[in-house]
Write a structure and sequence with these properties.
The complex is a heterodimer.
Chain A (H helix, E strand, L loop, with lengths): L4 E3 L2 E4 L5 E6 L6 E7 L5 E8 L2 E5 L7 E4 L6 E5 L8 E8 L14 E2 L3 E5 L1
Parallel strand pairs in A: 2-11
Antiparallel strand pairs in A: 1-3, 3-8, 4-5, 4-9, 5-6, 7-8, 9-10, 9-11
Chain B lengths: L8 E5 L4 E6 L7 E8 L6 E6 L4 E2 L4 E4 L5 E6 L8 E9 L11 E6 L1
Classes of the chains: A mainly beta, B mainly beta.
Chain lengths: 120, 110
């Protein structure tokens, strides 16, 4: 069964450093997402990406964050200058299509296993 | 998206049916009910979704009341591996983001 993969599984960085989190979505999927989950808290939406541009972003996704699909297979999240409060699990997700008319259609987001980011 | 209310936690014995309730009294006509679960800090996993008819797949059944103000996710024969946080999410078809609440922490006991 195809799955979303993420690398690395754990990233440790110093405050102020740049990090790039990598995701390989399911191959025929067209919509891509990043979410994060601070330890003990809810899963929070960061950004959605379609057709090589951001389609929606949350208040969390400020100028320190950027996303890219550099080569048609990878989907990356960059944090330019990490802060202590960026420590969290970061989940990538992908979805095949916008959805069909019948009963919701194929409108499921498939999540990767996450990257645990620790900022020291 | 409409707000949902779920119990904070539930327990169920292994092999029994686990019934997880969700209230969504402000749901509008074009909003679907989705269920996801998260097993111990793994990525959330889609379970099932529905609009107004009851739905069943290989993982679970979804029962939606006639007025659509509440629903129940049923895991028919719960196993220890079903221990997870279960999220009920109401959203418009085609909406991009998933808005997660606190969910219900389901513990399956041997």
């Amino acid at each position: 069964e195809p799955e979303v993969t993420q690398t690395p599984s754990h990233q440790v960085t110093q405050m102020g450093q740049e990090v790039i989190l990598r995701c390989v979505p399911i191959s025929n999927h067209l919509y891509f997402y990043w979410y994060r989950q601070i330890l003990g808290q809810k899963v929070e939406f960061l950004v959605s990406f379609y057709n090589n541009e951001i389609s929606e972003k949350s208040e969390i996704f400020d100028d320190q964050f950027s996303v890219e699909r550099p080569d048609g297979s990878n989907f990356t999240l960059k944090i330019r200058s990490t802060k202590l409060e960026d420590s969290a699990m970061y989940f990538c997700a992908s979805k095949r299509t916008h959805g069909l008319a019948r009963g919701g259609g194929i409108n499921e987001q498939f999540f990767g296993p996450g990257t645990r980011l620790t900022v020291l | 998206d409409a707000k949902t209310t779920q119990p904070t936690s539930m327990d169920c014995a292994e092999g029994r049916a686990a019934n997880l309730p969700c209230n969504h009294s402000t749901i509008s006509g074009n909003e679907y009910v989705y269920w996801y679960r998260q097993i111990h800090s793994q990525g959330p996993q889609y379970i099932i979704h529905g609009l107004k008819n009851n739905e069943t797949n290989e993982m679970a059944s979804l029962i939606i009341t006639e007025d659509r103000k509440s629903s129940t996710l049923i895991l028919p024969h719960a196993t220890l591996r079903d221990t997870a946080v279960y999220y009920c999410i109401v959203r418009v078809e085609g909406a991009q983001k998933l808005v997660f609440g606190q969910g219900t922490r389901l513990t399956i006991n041997p």
